[in-house]
From TrEMBL:
Occurrences of domain ABC transmembrane type-1 (ranges): 61-250
Cell location: Cell membrane
Membrane topology listed for this record: Multi-pass membrane protein
Coiled coil: none
Domain of life: Bacteria
Native organism: Nonomuraea antimicrobica
UniProt cross-references to InterPro entries, sorted A to Z: BP-dependent_transpt_permease, MetI-like, MetI-like_sf
Name under which the protein is recorded: ABC transporter permease
Lineage: Bacteria, Bacillati, Actinomycetota, Actinomycetes, Streptosporangiales
Record keywords: Cell membrane, Membrane, Transmembrane, Transmembrane helix, Transport
SUPFAM superfamilies, per the entry: MetI-like (SSF161098)
Protein family per UniProt: Belongs to the binding-protein-dependent transport system permease family.
Annotated transmembrane regions: 69-88, 100-120, 228-250
Length: 263
């Protein structure tokens, strides 16, 4: 199953990077091709504005990849240092950070993202910021938990007895031994962000037309479910396959990187 996940992820990345170069302009219209069914000229059919659905799917994959990767990188870049400091130094900082994290985690991920997106404004930048900060509490909590476990290990105590300073302990012993669960968390966060981007765009809080997005395509498809069901099938299928691929890949990485896993 992890290999299947890797294949799906590679296919998704290739679609996002190479697809737009092959399909051309997603806004190009073909006369008298309104809601045309899938054919040789249009493998995924056309939409209500005579635009090729495959071209829009490919460009929408690029938007989803940007939103998923950039929001996850933002959450990791901000959350790992906060969790690292809170777990390593503890004292008064740890309870303050964790109470704020607990309050934030009381809100479901998508509800929190919708609220932030409404404040920031509809755009790809707004989607990245909203999804990144919505994923931040989980990253902080995981990092802090791993740091608490690692700092009690014998090799850390031996390094302290040898006179190692805080910086050396953190970057030489603590952070490298927290990397595995954080890598797995990233593979889980990316598909959540892809679904989040599609949801925000579907609600009108994300990428705005005419920029192609799988969520925007689903919004348009609502009006033509009986006449042109393929308009809803293709973006929905792409969202499902992309998230499935990253989740399967994450499960495989967890089994490989976790020494406690049973093979």
């Amino acid at each position: 199953m992890p290999m299947a996940g890797l294949v799906l992820v590679v296919a998704f990345v290739l679609l996002a990077l190479v697809g737009p170069l092959v399909t051309g302009d997603p806004a190009a219209q073909e006369y008298l091709a309104t809601l045309a069914p899938p054919s040789g000229a249009h493998p995924m059919g056309t939409d209500d504005l005579e635009r090729d659905a495959f071209a829009r799917i490919a460009h929408g994959a690029q938007v989803s990849l940007q939103a998923g990767v950039l929001s996850t990188l933002l959450a990791m870049a901000v959350g790992i240092p906060i969790g690292l400091v809170a777990g390593f130094y503890r004292r008064w900082l740890d309870p303050v950070v964790m109470r704020l994290v607990d309050v934030t985690l009381a809100f479901p991920f998508l509800v929190f993202a919708v609220g932030l997106a409404a404040i920031i404004g509809p755009s790809l930048k707004g989607v990245v910021l909203a999804l990144g900060f919505s994923q931040l509490p989980a990253v902080i909590r995981i990092t802090r938990g791993e740091v608490l476990a690692v700092r009690e290990m014998d090799y850390v105590a031996a390094a302290v007895a040898d006179g190692s300073g805080d910086g050396h302990l953190i970057f030489r012993y603590v952070l490298p031994n927290c990397a595995s669960p954080l890598i797995v968390q990233a593979t889980v966060a990316i598909p959540a962000a892809i679904i989040g981007e599609s949801t925000l765009s579907f609600l009108g809080l994300g990428v705005q037309p005419p920029t192609p997005s799988w969520g925007v395509m689903l919004t348009t498809a609502q009006q033509y479910l009986s006449d042109a069901p393929w308009l809803a099938v293709w973006p929905g299928l792409m969202i499902a396959l992309a998230t499935l691929g990253f989740n399967l890949l994450g499960d495989g990485l967890r089994d490989v990187l976790d020494p406690r896993s049973v093979r």
